[in-house]
Amino acid sequence: MATMEFHCDGHIYPGQVELKVENLKRSILFYQEVIGFRILEQTETKALLTANGQTSLLTIEQPESVIQKQPHTTGLYHFALLLPNRTELGKILNHFIKLDLPLGASDHLVSEALYLNDPDGNGIEIYADRPAATWQWENNQVIMVTDPLDGDSLLKEVDGEDWQGLPADTIMGHIHLHVSDLAKDAEFYCKGLGFDIVSKYGGQALFISTGGYHHHIGLNTWAGVGAPKPSEHSVGLNWYSLIYPNGEAIQAAITRLQKIGAVVKKENGFFLTKDPSGHNIRLAGC
């Protein structure tokens, strides 16, 4: 069973992601035919993509003067779609194999995951959690590894069922970002936004969450310590949203952010802030 209880009232978790892409038609085709999204709304320059037909998980936009993804900058490492169970992960693995896609695959103990890139090089993880009761903790740190995935075992879960796209209860499980300074970003996300550090990967990555999830957000310096922000015109992450339990929780986060010197503004009905590495964040309520 999926661990959706970590993405509901009482927790802070990612809700939506908006990406800038070079070619909207190309990206729509990929996200429909390869990933299995459906179109919720579409204009000439933007498409809102959905799994359940009601809410958008991913928005893709083709801005004017867009340029290709720049290496060695902050930005998106991957966004991660959480499937409701292992069978659905087996189905999409079988689908990817039929398409002969280049894939990464890992067993993290807490989850099993597939990795690929969209046509612009934006990273995508698609995963299923193992039951939270099986996760191992030591000194308040969840134990995660990167072991080979048992793909044969996953495919046996399918039992002849065809892939039908993303299941309706797919959610945005986590987001993983390239940052320039782990300490500064950790302060922003923990002291400001209200997350807890639940895993450290050497001195190069932190995994943070609320409520004892293995991670709602990953932060790493794999693009280089002190990596610059990408150009405003670069493809990649435009913004992502964090869902708070209610308006009071959002106001408390705003107060904490302002205490550490972060700027929060209200625009088009949303509270917006920016982490020290330049990622735009919308603070939203359930």
Automatic annotation (TrEMBL):
Could you tell me which PANTHER family the record lists for this protein? Answer: CATECHOL-2,3-DIOXYGENASE
- GO MF annotations, alphabetized: dioxygenase activity
Keywords (alphabetical) are: Dioxygenase, Oxidoreductase
Per its record, how is this protein called by name?
Catechol 2,3-dioxygenase
Q: Where is the VOC domain?
A: 13-129, 171-286
Q: Does the keyword Phosphoprotein apply?
A: no
